[in-house]
């Protein structure tokens, strides 16, 4: 049993608050990676980190760089340790900023600088959005990441040192057009949809991420798997390109939306399960719209569909007597 008091040190030695211990800081960073999928389990975060390094050392390294910088920024600026920093709520947008920028801009020193700057800006934006959205009981979700990465990628072509050797990221359908979906497209696309939350295409990397979600809870893992499959089926029904479906591009926003509306922010019930499914479908359908909206200016879909759909569905909850917010 714990009393909640700060730990005592040897006589004559000043007490050190728990949050200043090195291990606690490390766990906060690991939880920050897990919070990309709305989880605070550190074992889930460790599996996510393993998955990123399996996808490529650069994704693991830059993802951790963004997480550490964002977490440290919030801590040094005095954001509540117990409520925000320790559970990883200040780190996950930094994770996504790091992974996305190394994907779009390649491995260079300039990318390191941009990830550090982006993670710091993302931390400040996270706090600003918290102040603005808290009165409406809305979470920031991945909106800070979406804003920072969109601004950097859209503005990148204006700066030669940023854009000269950028890697780019054409959709798989650019090389393999066609709408005929095979069984391989379906099962690999379902697993890839889980991995694409972290911009990871290989199905086996998605499988590791899925394992991390099952570690957080079997219901959590099942919701993620079914949401990814549902997003893929929506894309298939609407006639999306098979290569994009097989790469999980229509599943990852549905995964996040399913996790958000399927127990994280909305209490679980039969009605809320249907409500979450509607959100999952909406996120998949919105994916193409957001993609086409950003394409002319060089932007990317990112997790904008998840953010927009989840905000709308959470904002609507007070009007529905049969749907309740979690907690």
From TrEMBL:
Keyword Cell membrane: yes
UniProt KW keywords: Cell membrane, Membrane, Transmembrane, Transmembrane helix
Pfam family of the protein (one): UT
Coiled-coil positions: none
GO cellular component, one term: plasma membrane
Membrane topology, as annotated: Multi-pass membrane protein
Residue spans crossing the bilayer: 46-77, 89-105, 111-133, 204-237, 249-268, 275-295, 301-321
InterPro entries: Ammonium/urea_transptr (IPR029020), Urea_transporter (IPR004937)
Listed GO MF terms: urea transmembrane transporter activity
Subcellular location: Cell membrane
Keyword Magnesium: no
Site entry: Important for channel permeability: 303
Similarity comment: family membership: Belongs to the urea transporter family.
Protein's recorded name: Urea transporter
Organism: Actinomadura viridis
């Amino acid at each position: 049993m714990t009393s909640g008091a700060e730990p005592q040190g040897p006589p004559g030695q000043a007490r050190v608050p728990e949050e200043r211990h090195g291990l606690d800081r490390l766990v906060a960073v690991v939880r920050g990676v897990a919070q990309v999928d709305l989880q605070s389990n550190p074992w889930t975060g460790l599996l996510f980190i393993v998955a990123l390094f399996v996808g490529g050392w650069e994704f693991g390294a830059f993802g951790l760089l963004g997480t550490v910088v964002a977490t440290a920024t919030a801590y040094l600026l005095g954001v509540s340790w117990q409520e925000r920093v320790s559970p990883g709520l200040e780190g996950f947008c930094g994770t996504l900023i790091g992974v996305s920028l190394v994907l779009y801009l390649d491995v260079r020193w300039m990318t390191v600088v941009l990830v550090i700057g982006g993670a710091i800006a993302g931390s400040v934006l996270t706090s600003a959005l918290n102040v603005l959205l808290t009165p409406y009981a809305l979470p920031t979700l991945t909106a800070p990441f979406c804003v920072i990465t969109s601004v950097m990628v859209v503005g990148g072509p204006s700066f030669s040192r940023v854009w000269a050797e950028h890697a780019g990221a054409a959709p798989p359908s650019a090389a393999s057009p066609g709408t005929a979906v095979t069984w391989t497209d379906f099962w690999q696309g379902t697993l890839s949809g889980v991995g694409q939350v972290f911009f990871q295409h290989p199905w086996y990397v998605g499988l590791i991420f899925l394992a991390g979600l099952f570690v957080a809870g079997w219901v959590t893992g099942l919701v993620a798997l079914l949401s990814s499959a549902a997003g893929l089926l929506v894309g298939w029904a609407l006639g999306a390109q098979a290569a994009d479906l097989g790469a999980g591009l229509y599943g990852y926003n549905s995964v996040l939306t399913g996790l958000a509306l399927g127990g994280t922010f909305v209490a679980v019930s039969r009605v809320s399960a249907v409500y979450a499914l509607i959100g999952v479908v909406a996120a998949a359908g919105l994916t193409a719209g957001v993609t086409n909206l950003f394409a002319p200016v060089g932007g990317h879909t990112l997790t904008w569909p998840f953010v927009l759909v989840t905000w709308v569905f959470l904002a609507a909850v007070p009007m529905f007597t049969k749907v309740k917010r979690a907690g």
